[in-house]
Amino acid sequence: MAEEMITLGAALAELENAPPPAPVQPDTERALLGGLLLDGWRARDVLDEVGLRAEDFAIRAHGVTFAAITKLADAGRPVDPVTVTDELARAGTLEVAGGRTAVAKLQTLVPGSAHVAFYARQVRELAARRRIMEALQAALVQAAAYAPIEELRTAVTACFDAAVDDHAQGPRHISEIVPEALDKLERKPEGLIPTGLADLDYQLDGGFEGSRLYFFAGRPGAGKTGVAHRITIAGARAGGAALFSLEMSGAQNVARVLVSEARVNRRVLREGKAQSQQAWNKVSDVIGDVGELPIYIDDRGAASLAQVRHESRKLVRRHGVRLIVVDYLQLMEAEARRGYNKNDEVGALSKGLKALARELDVPVVCLSQLNRKCEERATKRPQVSDLRDSGSIEQDADVIVLLWRPQMYGSDIKVPFDAEGKVELHVAKWRDGETGSVWCRWDGKATRIDNLPQEEWPRRGGGA
Fold first, then answer.
1. Which one is catalytic: 49, 125, 134, 247?
2. Is 271 designated active site?
3. pTM to 2 decimals?
4. Fold annotation for 26-164
């Protein structure tokens, strides 16, 4: 027995003095950094999706370089060898990183940035393995020193859990969650953002809620952009709103907002008659109010999810924006991935927007097109299944609102009510509440959606 104990002690001493080599892949770390230098927009994605940190790099030169890249990305500044080198110099770590030549060489080691996320996951996994090895080696020494078993078991388990995932909370027993659930049931959500339409606010129990993804969908001409402008104005009055317009320029958006708020016919403004001067007077009356609202418009066409995410973070952090509106989903530029079709791309975008809403704890409102299938029905009234290009939208959305404006189809459809100037906002999906419809007034000349007295709503069952 004594001989066995001596042998065990010797083995433990050998392990302590000469542990097995830690898993390190310098080429993978360099490939990751090179890809990020080629596509700086991906830097923030790597942090969010993989949870990578500078200390996860085995080679210190790579860790300080990654820290410089992420600092630039967080600040919304360009990421390239020049800016990264300057940031390293400011931080006093340029020499640690290997100097300017070493940084510039990184982006020549990879053909592109397509595999950045894969490299990031590998670096993260290797870091976890190294931490596990360190914890186990320390546990072996503690075991040889006759540490209490329970203390040893707790220490090893805690180290292992932290090494596998430093950030995830992990599963919780239901008893820990019950108080949160009761609080959610008892209290009305705080900080709701009004939609700008009183009856829609009522239907949604007060308005838009943070961390939620809302889709407003309709056929071309149904009034989606008019709804987006009304929602944006309401969000601005509640603290600040961002509008990502992928279809119209900033000037076009503001012109339509001014006409809508002034409640004038845009065509009249250009006629040069007495009515035109009256209309211009109304526009002048609202310019001051609209111009002072905290609305931020990004009108870059075909903006990518990474760009929307990056700009949204800045606007929330710097200007306290409380609502994000995207017009519209199908015009967003999806990340090119091998084997992806249009449905997959749109699905990835909707999942990304959902993640953005949860990360920033603000409501994200996204417009979406509907396919032509709804026009094959006698009433042309849309259904959730008509959402264009992806079934993932239905899964990812917390709320889906479908727009139906019967008047736009003229004599092609017959409905048993007066459809002139009316648009239905059908809450077809709501994760936490009841579905239902509200009717609003539509002024096509001013592209304005407004409240409609309920006595003017079509009767229930009357074709709506």
1. 247
2. no
3. 0.63
4. DNAb Helicase; Chain A (1.10.860)
